[in-house]
Amino acid sequence: NPNNYVSFNNELWRIIGVMNNIEDGNGVKESRLKLIKTAVFISKAWNAVKNNDWTNSSIKSELNGTYLQNLKDTDLIDNVKWKLGTSHHNTNVFEKYIEERGENVCGSKEWLGKISLIYASDYGYATSGIDTSTREACLKTLMPKWNNEENCKNNSWISNTTYHQWLLTPANEDCTMASHLTTFGYVSHNPVTAKSEHAISPALYLKPDVKIISGVGSPTDPFLLDLTT
Questions:
Q1: What's the CA gap between 219 and 85, in Å, rounded?
Q2: Does residue 124 contact residue 96 with C-beta atoms inside 8 Å?
Q3: What is the pLDDT of residue 228?
Q4: For the chain, what is the largest distance between any 2 Cα atoms, rounded to a whole number of angstroms?
């Protein structure tokens, strides 16, 4: 449970990491902080049709419509390119990271926008591991097998046992499926349409000139952010 909490939109969010070479709409690649909201926004089907292309998804439309319009700190959010490479079911964290940024897609290769979801690899890299299940061992374990790897799933700070959560990673085997994080701590694929409503935890990138100005990153004293000039 690292001290990576930030106050954003007068809510608690968490820092997934400092992500390198994230490209904005002008082709500029820089390092940017990536955040995820701690509380669930809504439970919803991925799409109204049987297609996992994020650019046409119902979730994308809602997050970048009404939800974005109601945020208070929109001046801190960057408009960036989110890669939309598909991933196979039985892959580990390293493999998912590569596939998510690869050329195999079910539609668009990337999406330029502000609010999205975390990747399956974001969840995987959030583990610290422990004892014999070291972090390195966890990252090499197939993500559907994390159900049996208590030290991997229980030591990922993104893990939860309350709700199934949609992930941005589309399925490679079937373009009507997308990845989700289960309450049992493993990553699986589910149909994108109405029979699969999962929780949505918004994710975003901050502008590169956003800095931490105070706080220690705890839930009671989160980091405060501001644009530097």
A1: 34
A2: yes
A3: 77
A4: 49
Query: What was the pLDDT predicted at 229?
Result: 62
pLDDT of residue 129: 85
Residue 197 pairs in a beta bridge with: 45
* Distance of alpha carbon 104 from alpha carbon 14, whole angstroms: 30
DSSP for 67-82 reads IHHT-S-GGGB--EEE
Please say whether the beta carbons of 179 and 167 come within 8 A: yes
User: DSSP assignment, residue 2?
Assistant: -
Contact yes or no for 124/139 (Cβ under 8 A): yes
Residue 49: phi and psi, rounded to 5, are: -125, 165
Q: With b meaning 16 or more CB within 10 Å and e meaning fewer, what string describes 116-154?
A: bbbbbbbbbbbbbbeeebebeebbebbbbebeebebbbb
Low-confidence stretches of the chain (pLDDT beneath 50): none
Residue-level pLDDT at 227 = 87
Report in angstroms the alpha-carbon separations of 180 from 26, 71, 212. Answer: 31, 25, 31
Q: Which of 126, 37, 30 has the alpha carbon at shortest distance from 78?
A: 30
Tell me the HSE value of 115 on the side-chain side, using a 13 A CA sphere.
22
Nearest-angstrom CA–CA distance, 21 and 41: 28
Q: What is the pLDDT of residue 43?
A: 85
Question: Structure pTM?
Answer: 0.94
Give CA–CA dist 134/142, Å, rounded. 14
Helix segments in 141-193, DSSP class H: 150-153
